[in-house]
Amino acid sequence: MKKLLFILSVLMLVSVSAFGQSKLKTKSGTINFEASVPSFEEVKAINKDVSAILNTETGEFAALALMKGFRFKIALMEEHFNENYVESSKFPKAVFKGTIVNFNKDAVSDTPTEFEINGSITLHGVTWDINVPVKIWREDQFTVLSTDFKLKPTDFDIKIPAIVSKKVAEEVEVNANFSLSN
Amino acid sequence: MPISLYPISMMNRKSIIVIVAFITVIGVVGYKYLYQDHREIDSEDVVAALTSESISEIFKHDAANDLLNATVSVKGVISEVDGRIITLDDMVTCSFTSEISGFNIGDTLTVKGRCIGYDDLFELVKLDQCSLLNKN
Q1: Which value does ipTM take for this structure?
Q2: A34 exposed, middle or buried (CB, 10 Å; 0-12, 13-18, 19+)?
Q3: Closest residue on chain A to B70 (Cα)
Q4: Residue from A128, A124, A167 nearest A150 by CA
Q5: Per the confidence metrics, is the pTM higher than 0.90?
Q6: A36 CB near a chain B CB, below 8 Å?
Q7: Nearest C-alpha of chain A: how many angstroms from B89?
Q8: Cα A38 to Cα A33: distance, rounded to the nearest angstrom
Q9: For tag attachment on chain A, is the N or C end more exposed, with fewer CB atoms within 10 Å?
Q10: A9 min Cα distance to partner chain B (Å)
């Protein structure tokens, strides 16, 4: 019985470490977004503390950005973003969960290869399915994932007041970059 | 009637000065409001002095509403150093604005920063705009 327990625990340890190795991660991914309209003040923010995990065996990818981590050039814009638009005290994070279609870690090389990623974004209490291209390449010890896509605030039930609606684009351009390592 | 040197009477001049001053004040106040400075976390007083364990417990029990966006200090032992980011006891990440050096795993630190929330992926409390308060 003791022996069996020992073997079981060794097996579990081995499987846990094997599991660990297939996961690449970062705590300092970046997400930029821009919703500027020409000739008005730029509406642009960056979050440099985004967490992400990629399972290289299954292609599963998850990312989490804390809304309060988005920094704007203009302090008042940051305040409005947090308090009126994304309501970051009520909905503190944005989460992406999805899978890279036909991901094969051996297909990743020094030159960017395009994959497709399927998943959903949850923010402001609303979950929205997205399907976007993603570029993946290797850079030193990192596997880099980079994607650009557009989101509509209205899809996430984020209301832009009429008084500023001309100054904020209807579609927000998002760029996300993750340098993942063991 | 003699041609007045000043087409605007004294009374009118006074009111014009008042109006101009008023507009200037509104303009300055408005500008200051629209382009106000960002918070300076490292010059703010801390709302709570915590340890990596206590702050992590608060977040795990979802009782952290008072801490969100607040300036706090956290004491802990470095478990990871990565570029701008220090992790304390695998429970709190402290993100500095620029690259940091001279920190080693095992050092005990007290860090001041703005609490931005809880990261479920890594089960970590996150602080940004950090500064070092104390190194033991």
Answers
A1: 0.82
A2: middle
A3: A68
A4: A128
A5: no
A6: no
A7: 15
A8: 15
A9: N
A10: 24
